[in-house]
Amino acid sequence: GTEEDDFGYRLFPDRNKKPQSFLVRSLFTFHNRCQLMLRMTLDTNPYAQLLLEAMKQSGCTVFNDRHFSCENCDGCVSGGFDSATSQIVLCQNNIRHQSHMNRVVTHELIHAFDHCRAHVDWFNNVKHLACSEIRAANLSGDCTLMNEIARFKFGLKGHHQACVRDRAIRSILAVRKVSKEMAEKAVDEVFDACFNDLEPFGRIPHSKTDAKRAYRDFQNRDRYNANL
């Protein structure tokens, strides 16, 4: 109990429950809506499509039924990455709009991509967690201008970096029982390196248009190197 509490599993109470039958789950509109929005994201969102292809090329093919789970969560979270099962949790009771689903899936797929390509010590090294949270906030669209305006934040110079730092710290505090000072220290120590790690996008996708360009460039990488 205490160990699970430290690792943030308290936010995902359905994690330890016996899976419900298809008939029982089909009766709940939250679950149906979550599944439909997930499918729409995976089929049409360029952020998610790029990450799925990058993971496949890295040897970590993602399967909808195996690697995504729509569940009820604590009221303060929208999703999470369970590294123990390599599964993305989508909080069906908190994700109500397609744009929100797009951001959550992208954010968690970045964690999954980091888990695939690197030996991330999620539970024992807070710097590793901080790095992935910085990358997820930076590359998922969490800190786009429109999202920040919706949060009534209107900063100008250095605003994107400030948003990424703030959201990374908040994410660490949500899933780990560490002090705010420790979370801030971990984020600050790795910020420059992790903020500038733009894989697999190659750029910061500030909009869906940017993400489409990044996806097209990613698809063409092998072609550009074919004759070298």
Automatic annotation (TrEMBL):
GO cellular component assignments: mitochondrion
Keyword line: Hydrolase, Metal-binding, Metalloprotease, Protease
TM region(s), chain numbering: none
One of the GO biological process terms: mitochondrial protein processing
EC numbers, comma separated: 3.4.24.-
Highest taxon in the source lineage: Eukaryota
A molecular-function term among this protein's GO annotations: metalloendopeptidase activity
Xref: InterPro entries: Peptidase_M76_ATP23 (IPR019165)
Keyword Protease: yes
Family: Belongs to the peptidase M76 family.
Protein name, entry field: Mitochondrial inner membrane protease ATP23
The organism of origin for this protein: Spizaetus tyrannus (black hawk-eagle)
